[in-house]
Design a protein that fits this description.
- This protein is mainly alpha-helical and 355 residues long.
- It has one domain: Orthogonal Bundle (Peroxidase, domain 1).
- It is 42% helix and 8% strand.
- The protein has 14 helices and four strands.
- A two-stranded antiparallel sheet has the order 1-2. A two-stranded antiparallel sheet has the order 3-4.
- Helix 2 runs antiparallel to helix 4, helix 3 crosses helix 5 and helix 11 crosses helix 13.
- The longest helix is centred in the last third of the chain and has 16 residues.
- The protein starts with 5 loop residues before the first helix and ends in a 28-residue tail after the last helix.
- Its cofactor is heme b; Ca(2+).
- It is found in: Secreted.
- Its EC number is 1.11.1.7.
- Belongs to the peroxidase family. Ascorbate peroxidase subfamily. Belongs to the peroxidase family. Classical plant (class III) peroxidase subfamily.
Length: 355
């Protein structure tokens, strides 16, 4: 008689235990009707003060949602092949929970210190301004995790990109982990294959990967991220041959050997406008980051780059779909509505370590 593998029962139990509460548009329509207006108003002011802050805030959602993947493997007997096997039983994604925003404490090193974030992520003060305005209007109501999703949407819309309705209702995490962020966030050296595999872990397709990479339509990146491309690609002692020669000369002038590697350059030719110029630049060999240009050199991602470079509407549609899918990466976990996005409720702000 066939015996149902116990591991499947375990998977079912885990899936039920960690099923996240549903998100929906208009979540704050009764508890905080002006919430979305307040977020966009602060984002508009931030844009006037420093246009680059829009791109910086938009990046925060990605760096928040793509953290804390927990794999569990178990040994079980496969009754079809009559032997014990070790296979993944389930994957839990903590996801979009505002963990990125937590400052370090005496007993926690958070995600801001992660390799992909330190000296790179910025504009946390814009999130602080949004939270302060929301606390004045609707105390202890709007989560920091939802603020990140709303602010990212508004950053795109205010830069000339698409606007869309977001689903809300997330809770804020009670902790953060530098290690979790280090273990998952991609490097600017990443190639298309590693990016495809990473996104697949989150049930995001190749199309989602390429479309979401279009977030680099706005903003800048540091010389630190491309020095290897310019002078020692793959340990060759030579530049990346995929870089268009005239563009490489410009990059050499921007980022010569010995430069302060915090100097920044635009990610595409229109860094303040959310459009499909990013993809046109990739087709022309003018991608700033290796992880961007690889999307055109790889046969698996190249078709989408070509389509988006020719059809901005198609890019916008795919980008919105990807943002919605990414924004819903979550599981049920202990959480709260933080009153200060940098600190868990009940912890005095003055015990935080300097950051």
């Amino acid at each position: 008689m066939y015996q149902f593998p116990w591991v499947l029962l375990l998977v079912a139990a885990v899936n039920m235990a960690f099923a996240a509460e549903p998100l929906w548009p208009g979540f704050y329509s009764e508890t905080c009707p002006p919430a979305e207006f307040i977020v966009r108003d602060v984002m508009k002011k931030a844009m006037i003060r420093e246009p680059r802050s829009l791109a910086s805030v938009m990046r925060l959602q990605f760096h928040d949602c793509f953290v804390n993947v927990l794999y569990k493997s178990v040994q079980f007997h496969d009754y079809f092949v009559h032997e014990f096997l070790l296979k993944p039983a389930f994957v839990l994604i903590q996801g979009c929970d505002g963990s990125l925003l937590l400052d370090d404490t005496a007993d926690m090193v958070g995600e801001k210190q992660a390799l992909s974030n330190i000296n790179s992520l910025r504009s946390f003060e814009v999130v602080d301004e949004i939270k302060e305005a929301l606390e004045d209007a609707c105390p202890s109501t709007v989560s920091c995790a939802d603020i990140l999703v709303l602010a990212a949407r508004d950053a795109v819309a205010l830069s000339g990109g698409p606007d869309w309705e977001v689903r809300l209702g997330r809770k804020d995490s009670l902790t953060a982990s530098q290690q979790d962020s280090d273990n998952i966030m991609p490097s600017p050296r990443a190639d298309a294959t590693s990016l495809i595999n990473l996104f697949a872990q989150f049930n995001l397709s190749v199309k989602d990967l390429v479309a979401l990479s279009g977030s680099h339509s706005i903003g800048k990146a540091r010389c630190f991220s491309i020095m290897f491309r310019l002078y020692n690609q793959s340990g060759s002692g030579k530049p990346d041959p995929a870089i268009e020669p005239e563009f490489r000369e410009k990059l050499n002038q921007l980022c010569p050997l010995g430069v302060d590697e915090n100097v920044t350059g635009p990610l595409d030719a229109t860094p303040r406008v959310f459009d499909n110029q990013f993809f046109k630049d990739l087709v022309g060999g003018r991608g700033f980051l290796n992880s961007d240009q690889t999307l055109f050199t790889s046969r698996r991602t190249r078709p989408y780059v070509r389509v988006f470079s020719k059809d901005q509407d198609e890019f916008f549609k795919a980008f919105v779909e990807g943002m919605l899918k990414m924004g819903e990466l979550q599981v049920e976990q202990p959480g709260e509505i933080r009153t200060n996005c940098r600190v868990v409720n009940g912890r005095p702000v003055d015990v935080l370590m300097s950051y």
